[in-house]
Specification:
- This protein has 12 helices and 8 strands.
- It has 293 residues and is α/β, with parallel strands linked by helices.
- It has 2 domains: 176 residues, NAD(P)-binding Rossmann-like Domain (Rossmann fold); 102 residues, N-(1-d-carboxylethyl)-l-norvaline Dehydrogenase, domain 2 (Orthogonal Bundle), CATH 1.10.1040.
- Helix 6 links the parallel strand 5 and strand 6.
- The longest helix has 20 residues.
- The N and C termini lie far apart (55 Å).
- The mean pLDDT is 96.
- The structure holds nicotinamide-adenine-dinucleotide.
- The site of nicotinamide-adenine-dinucleotide has 26 residues, from helix 1, helix 5 and helix 11.
């Protein structure tokens, strides 16, 4: 198997930008691919914010910022993005048809050595592996937040070459993550499966008008002494990403929750990344001292 040196990130949004930054911090050469420059500008902004935060907490030295950033480049040319890729980490929009198109495209232009990984939250690697033309080299390698939530899920499909698992486990650790191996394909891996139950319940409490968003979050945060409740978590994930996960589901609760998310999305309120979702950023109400009283 390939020794990994060069990593290509497909999709430079919320998660892609963070995975790629961590890879550059860990010493890998990273090239970002997206459809347009606007995504790269937003990604560069994420790099600055995250590096500042990591330096404040003594996790990265300020004198290392330049060398970290020098390992990062951007392109919207697909062939250039993968010309020397040892591994692709795909973080494009959570929509099956979009991901299938991307994997069909990159399966054709990637060198033989390239390992294919997807960061999908709820789709299955078997839904993408065949179309990539390289099912044996295809595996889900799923990050959470990368810097504060550091689990990386490794979920093969039935046709994944088993030697890929220890390689991804090793890479996960080099990327400062804690690898969790999933034995059988399952939507949402382990953590997201449990998280979905929490968010689904919070959605029902709100859409059935049983409690307000703040009351629901407060109840979770105070009892678990944790900095985020379910709606704060949704702001962090991105309401659009959450909508992509639930909008196809036919059950009554998902339909109501999807409609709730849509009212925010239609106003451009996608969460922390746009400055407003259920809360306003950078100083959301749940971080004010009065909130927990
Ligand atoms: N947001 C989270 O907390 C989170 C956590 C773990 C995993 N994920 C997963 O990561 C993936 C990305 O989610 P996100 O929140 O970063 O979304 P995002 O909307 O922030 O970013 C998606 C990016 O993909 C790009 N894109 C769309 N179509 C493309 C194409 N054909 N070619 C190249 N780029 C394309 C978009 O321009 C955008 O920049 C999803 O699969 C999601 O489920 C998200």
């Amino acid at each position: 198997m390939t020794k990994i040196k060069n990593i290509t990130i497909l999709g430079s949004g919320n998660l892609g930008s963070r995975i790629g930054l961590q890879a550059a911090i860990s010493g890998y050469e990273v090239i970002f691919y997206d459809l347009n420059d606007a995504a790269f500008i937003r990604a560069a902004d994420v790099f600055q914010k995250v590096l500042k935060h990591l330096t404040k907490h003594n996790l990265v030295k300020s004198e290392d910022h330049d060398s970290i950033l020098s390992r990062i480049s951007f392109t919207s040319d697909a062939a250039e993005a993968v010309q020397d890729a040892d591994l692709i980490s795909e973080s494009v929009t959570e929509e099956l048809t979009i991901k299938q198109k991307v994997w069909e495209q990159f399966g054709k232009v990637s060198p033989d050595k390239t390992i294919f990984t997807t960061n999908t939250s709820y789709l299955l690697p078997s839904q993408l592996a065949e179309i990539s033309g390289r099912p044996e080299k295809f595996c889900a390698f799923h990050f959470h937040d990368v810097f504060t939530a550091r689990v990386v899920d490794i979920m093969p499909h039935a046709g994944t070459d088993p030697t890929l698992i220890p390689l991804l486990e090793d890479l996960g650790r080099k990327l400062n993550q804690v690898p969790v191996i999933i034995k059988q394909e399952s939507p949402g891996y382990v953590f997201n499966f449990m998280l979905m139950a929490l968010i689904g319940a919070a959605g029902q409490l709100k859409t059935k008008n049983i409690a307000d968003i703040e009351a629901i979050d407060k109840s979770w945060m105070v009892n678990f002494n944790t900095p985020l409740g379910p709606f704060g978590i949704l702001d962090n994930i991105g309401l659009d990403t959450a909508w992509h996960v639930v909008h196809g589901r036919a059950d009554k609760a998902s339909v109501a929750f999807s409609a709730l998310l849509k009212t925010y999305i239609d106003q451009g309120k996608l969460g922390e990344k746009t400055g407003e979702g259920f809360y306003k950023y950078p100083n959301p109400e749940y971080r004010q001292s009065h909130f927990m009283k």
